[in-house]
Amino acid sequence: MKNYQDFQLDDFLLDESFNRWARQESPPEEWKFWQDWLHRHPDKQEIAQQARLLIVGLDVKPYRDISEEEVQNQVYQIRAQTHQRRTLGSPSTSQFMWWARVAAMLVLTAGLGWSVWVFRKPVEQPIYTQLIKSSPVALIEKINTTNAPLSVPLPDGSLVLLQPASRISFSEHFMGAKREVYLTGEAFFNVQKNPLQPFYVHANEVVTRVLGTSFTVKAFENQANVQVAVRTGRVSVFARSDWQRAEKEVNSDVPGLVLTPNQQVVFNRQEGNFHRTIMPDPTIIRHRFANDVFVYDETSVTKVFAQLEEAYGIDIVFDEQLLKQCTITAKFQDEPLLEKLNLICQTIKASYQIVDAQIVISAPGCY
């Protein structure tokens, strides 16, 4: 492991892990490492902050992608900034030396096969940062820097279970026609029902709308997908672009994707599309099946599928005429739903596929 305590400015600038943290692109474990490390080493906080501020305007690319002329041009620009600061008379000698170190680092790293250069355009802020800055009301922010979920009560009595390396912002009081929160990371929501004031979660390029339900949103800034999974109730999920367009139009219907219990959707941030499916481990949602015991004695599989469909709230599609002669004798207890289906399908020589949050059974039938 690297000895970060010996790091100087140029070391931090060239360290891949520190770069990811500075740009808010770290996975949760790495993000927490740097938070803890800086807390334990206050003597390094100033130089780390200098490096972080510089990194938001820097990038690192292979040297083969940039010419020697461009490298020299970047060195010249930094020297010009140094000269300008000295002319204004505000910086101290130590600040001048700081800029000189950066210029020297550019030349050094170019010789090693890498080049660091200043962006000519501002670095785009993370979506979460943009959202909370554009909020018309003052927001409270909660950040989970621990290794365990953090319970966050909301003003309306709703409860959020905020996962590590995640943060959420919301107003002190939910006023007006909407209850809105802003999330980066992962959180489980248990929302108080209020049809007159819908609840909205803004997370990356996705907006989730609910009246009262429980669900999970996973939307880390550095991950390729946004995921919404529903435990109880119904939620509507929208692409932010569709949502923003509809918000500007009067009486416009927002094209959203409706999710019901045990369903989830994955939004591909690069391609801008949704993929709906069932949760990996669906749970029973009907109280009369709460003991999770299913006993069958020469029972028609059509009745078995109908009962499982009701218990889990998931559509099971099959040809009733084809399977009406198929029967099973079995006792299911705490087996997951998909394991139950595997056992049933083996018995009747069938198979199943998950298609758009439905389970589709294919079978030759029984004669």
Unreliable runs? 58-68, 78-93, 106-123
What gap, in angstroms, lies between the N and C termini? 66 Å
Beta-strand content: 25-35%
What is the CATH topology of the largest domain?
Answer: Jelly Rolls
Described by strand count, sense and barrel closure, the largest sheet is: 13 strands, mixed
Query: Which CATH class of the largest domain applies here?
Result: Mainly Beta
- What is the name of the CATH architecture of the largest domain? Sandwich
Descriptive overview:
- With 367 residues, this protein is an alpha+beta fold.
- It folds into three domains: 4-118, no CATH class; 127-278, Jelly Rolls (Sandwich), CATH 2.60.120.1440; 287-362, Phage tail protein beta-alpha-beta fold.
- The protein has helices at 9-14, 16-22, 28-40, 45-55, 68-88, 93-111, 127-133, 240-248, 301-312, 320-323, 337-347, and strands at 58-62, 114-118, 140-144, 150-153, 159-162, 166-170, 179-190, 199-203, 206-210, 214-219, 225-232, 235-239, 257-259, 263-268, 273-278, 294-300, 316-317, 327-332, 351-355, 358-362.
- Helix 5 packs antiparallel against helix 6 (93-111).
- The chain is elongated, with a radius of gyration of 27 Å.
- The termini are far apart.
